[in-house]
Fold these 2 entries.
Entry 1:
Amino acid sequence: MLPTPSTSHVPYSRVYEPAEDSFLLLDTFSQDSETSFLSTRFPAGSSPTPLLLEVGPGSGVVLAFLTAHAATLLGRSDVLTLGVDVNWFACEAASETVRRTVGEVEAEAEGVAGQVDVGNGSGEKGVKPRKSQRRSGHLLATAQGDLASPLRPGAVDVLVFNPPYVPTDELPTLPKELADPTTATTTTTTTTTTTTTTTSNDSEKKKPVPKTTYAQESTLLALAYAGGRDGMEVTDRLLASLPEILSERGVAYVLLCAQNRPEEVKARVRAWESERGRWMAETVGSSGKKAGWERLQVVRIWREGV
Amino acid sequence: MKVLTLNFLTCAVKSCKTSVDSFPLHPKDAELVSDDVELNPQLLVNLLPRIDWNALRTTATELGFPTLPEQPPTPEELQADEKMLQDLHKLLMETQISEGKLVCGACGHEYAVREGIANFLLPSHLV
Ligand SMILES: C[S@@+](CC[C@H](N)C(=O)[O-])C[C@H]1O[C@@H](n2cnc3c(N)ncnc32)[C@H](O)[C@@H]1O
Ligand SMILES: [Zn+2]
């Protein structure tokens, strides 16, 4: 079992805290069936570097897992990763989570490779320190945006989305000031600090910590779970963009809950027209069995025969 | 954000997707920082077929990097060319845009980059 990336630095008042859905994705990618599917689809050495996009990385737990363990999960470490989230704080948190996790994984790989005593009791001293193989891919960036809208058509090889999937009466919209919290900072801070603000040191000025109100934080968290009608309003938009955004060899992993009617979703995808090959949709991971029903599942979507 | 990211991004405005002028986005007032990343020749070789070379040449020039050759190197050429490996590694894997703007050549929209995070959310009249 690969360790779950640490997200203890993430402000959960503004960013979705890893939960059962997040862990189901980690488990799904750890299965032999998925690692072998991905390493067959993107054979190391003989195929171009894959680009992986996580839409809505939140805390970054999934993005960090996939980036840091690329060699194990995708069979190669020349993997480029990207995260796009509407929530600015999620972008910041996710990139920090990836940075830390990659750092740990690489440090450990170094340590093991450089160890003089292999520590298995054999006492093999004097083993020459060798340079370790890189285990991790490379995070290109996290960016604030709507779904895959900033991506070039056909660019994405692996897309991962744990969407806001809970059925709700309304879809929250991002308040204007949170569309760009870094500029909202100055106005927010001046209104909250009415006393003793004669001194402010330089380092504080350089890196302002954006403040958020309780109402704004509720909206940010609602954006993480509220899926509107059938919990599918956001997911449906993402699904509709897949034929354009995925490369020919591209594959998407989308998490659904039972109320999303996953069987219907899969049937719809399989009926998509395609100039080359045909669209496939299969459940490749599930959790929370209740009375014969899976509460959550991960659906893999890809083109066969291209 | 790594400079390499620009090779995969485009304007988020729907009607710009089909315009050749929306790619690559043009950095403006960009502040660059450099990360220390270990050079991996195989990574660069596998990356070559993924790169839109013309767009990369534009980006390199706009950011003040040495002009790239008109044609991309073949994998063999790249592997044998230490200087080219170093240059590409520095540009693609090490250089990050920390502040500035990314401008669409088709609609003129400017996407802000702050603390390395680009903001592609559109004002409602552009959605
Ligand atoms: C259920 S959370 C998943 C977070 C994380 N991937 C995980 O598994 O723990 C959904 C995430 O999607 C983001 N999100 C919601 N709507 C989005 C949209 N239209 N475009 C991009 N991200 C969105 C939310 O901000 C939130 O971070
Ligand atoms: Zn544009």
Entry 2:
Amino acid sequence: MSGLSFIAPKTVEEAVRALAAGDGLTKCLAGGTDLLVQLRSGRARPEVIVDMKRIPGLIGISEREDRFIIGAATPGAMISECGPLCRAWPGITEAVDLIGSQQIQGRASLGGNLCNASPAADSVPAVIAARATCVVVGPEGRREVPVEAIVTGPGQTSLRKGELILEFHVPKPRPHQADAYLRFIPRTEMDIAVVGCAVNVTLGDKGVCRDARVVLGAVAPTAVIVTEAAEALVGHWLDEETLGRLDAAARRASKPITDKRGTIEYRIKVAGVLARRAAAIAFKRAGEC
Amino acid sequence: MSKIHVSTVINDDPVEYLCEPQQSLLDVLRDELNLTGSKEGCGSGDCGACTVIVDGRIVCSCLMLGAEAEGRKITTVEGIATGDKLHPVQQKFLEHAALQCGFCTPGFIVAAKALLDENPNPSEEEARYWLAGNLCRCTGYDKIVRAVLDAAEVMRAEAAE
Ligand SMILES: Cc1cc2nc3c(=O)[nH]c(=O)nc-3n(C[C@H](O)[C@H](O)[C@H](O)COP(=O)(O)OP(=O)(O)OC[C@H]3O[C@@H](n4cnc5c(N)ncnc54)[C@H](O)[C@@H]3O)c2cc1C
Ligand code: FES
Ligand code: FES
């Protein structure tokens, strides 16, 4: 690990310059709860580590009329303390809260959860379901991209050398729009999702679904937006027939692997069950707001 | 590779040290500053034996770089007692015999102190969830949870005085 250098720039420009420099691997550091584990195991061998936490805006949550802006390195504990965000998007904040222990919550960020690009990352399905975007800065300037465009496969992102995520923009809910995220793990705390499912719905007249997004985690190389599951909901109440179609669509979209946490068959079945349960919660919440 | 110079505050004392870029805060505490109360159980964020408080939040010091501590305020288990007077959490750990080998104890003490600073009256469930990132191979947790809830009661009584 010799030859590693560490910097903690105070501006985005400096950070981008440091990330873009040289031929070697350069890495952003947010909470380090993935990166430090990988440094130690030798799985990541960067030449430069750029700690982003001193850049203004990287930590903190602000509100505009139509959206929340969450700094990419904001720790989970701070996200859980943000009352307006918890009320607007309980699915997102509950998903963030599922990440690790209280100690991990003191550091783990949305940017790290996304860019580590684990298929089982808990915050990612809920953030995608809310149609959030992220602001990416790099040597070529600034661009705003949908969150689902970042991860391209396990451990892989579409970010180019020198690019980092500055912030997440999460639109505020419309009337009767709400979300939910559920994950299944073999115990109650401190484990990685066997399946995760986020459902975000907007209800119209008499509780009929007008718009929906259903996103599954841990059942494919990246989080998957299940269009067919959303179509099963739109135009309907959440009755047994709708739930059956949602369940079937979630199962069809699941292309998981077998590992110590669950077999392919098991994960597929659980995907359907979680979709049903998350939809029930999201519909209930949407009916009440 | 040149070392990084860090100025920080640990247990209310200004501290300066030199560290390697890849050195964790835990390694700095133990190997450079001789603060060996924080333990390394796993080095991967799973056991909580290395728990310290950084700017008011508990973190795993094995998952933070020493270099990140610049300008922060850090509390380790060595900073929990006031002079010779044990913190109520420490006192109750003794009274309830909430330890056997003691390896996990510093992490539990720091995490429990942070819990009670934030929530003076946690339910048993809240205490158990808060402490889920601290593993103990010996006690079966029950005595630890009793000690923490008992310490909470003592602290509430002290605060009411
Ligand atoms: C004990 C333990 C339990 C865990 N439990 C869970 C869990 O239940 N669910 C879960 O989803 N995860 C879990 N994790 C994984 C981890 O905590 C999360 O993925 C966390 O959100 C990572 O955030 P971070 O800020 O610590 O990322 P870091 O480790 O700082 O970064 C992770 C990666 O993302 C890159 N990166 C970070 N921020 C940016 C940015 N803004 N722009 C570009 N690249 C960036 C880094 O270069 C690095 O490659 C756990 C980890 C541990 C150690
Ligand atoms: S040594 Fe840090 S969590 Fe185990
Ligand atoms: S007392 Fe031995 S690990 Fe907890």
